[in-house]
């Protein structure tokens, strides 16, 4: 096989691979620009004309030099040609070469929800209306994301967009697991919703304990329960010498505590050495 034949065979092979990965050009151009899409427009050799804008509900946008242009309903390529023609015919840019990059599609936003934080697979997920495998409720989304990690808190924050404002809904996992209140997980999801799974609350324990360190703070945990998590007090320790350092109004305070006192987030328990 000569050099030209080998080159042609290589080109054909790469073309086939490209079609398999990205699909034919006609499929890529099938999605039309629409109202609400955010696009970036650049003109070769004219950096001052670079524009990032959202297509209006009337399918038009305002572009420097040429003013209002209706591009909603056009393919990206057709919109590029239209803007280039207006720039060239108006005498603003000779032989204008226009490129349009879609930064965000409104349709994509309206068909996906986002889950962040302490889950196995954070990211964007399609709603059920978008794909057969899509999610519909909060519990669907958590399952699709692989569940929560061992570092997850006992609650989830669901953020819903309501006009120009956001509504935050706290979903308590303890009530779901301990009381069987599964209705909380059945919040129906809408496009653009965000679910955040925060990291667990913790406390710290050090001094005369068997296993000093950082531990998960369970709901309603007392000082005595925390000490047991840390393996208990050593022979050299004293129950009378237990202190808790807690941040109060931004300042760190040292508190004397009793065994049945409840701990707060980020408390630091210190067990002093017995003097006798």
Helix/strand layout:
Layout: H1 3-22, H2 25-28, E1 38-43, E2 51-54, E3 60-63, E4 67-70, H3 76-89, E5 98-104, H4 106-110, E6 112-117, E7 123-126, H5 138-144, E8 155-162, E9 165-172, H6 173-179, E10 194-197, E11 202-207, E12 213-216, H7 223-229, E13 237-248, E14 251-256, E15 268-273
Parallel strand pairs: 6-10, 11-15
Antiparallel strand pairs: 1-2, 1-5, 3-4, 6-7, 8-9, 8-10, 11-12, 13-14, 13-15
Structure overview:
This protein is α+β, with helices and mostly antiparallel strands and 276 residues long. The chain has 3 domains: 31-106, 2-Layer Sandwich (wza like fold), CATH 3.30.1950; 111-197, Outer membrane lipoprotein wza domain like (Outer membrane lipoprotein wza fold like, Roll); 202-273, Outer membrane lipoprotein wza fold like. The protein is 23% helix and 32% strand. It has 7 helices and 15 strands. It has helices spanning 3-22, 25-28, 76-89, 106-110, 138-144, 173-179, 223-229, and strands spanning 38-43, 51-54, 60-63, 67-70, 98-104, 112-117, 123-126, 155-162, 165-172, 194-197, 202-207, 213-216, 237-248, 251-256, 268-273. The strands form 4 sheets. Strands 7-6-10-8-9 form a 5-stranded mixed sheet. Strands 12-11-15-13-14 form a 5-stranded mixed sheet, with helices on one face. The chain is elongated. The N and C termini lie far apart (94 Å). Residues 6-30 have low confidence and may be disordered.
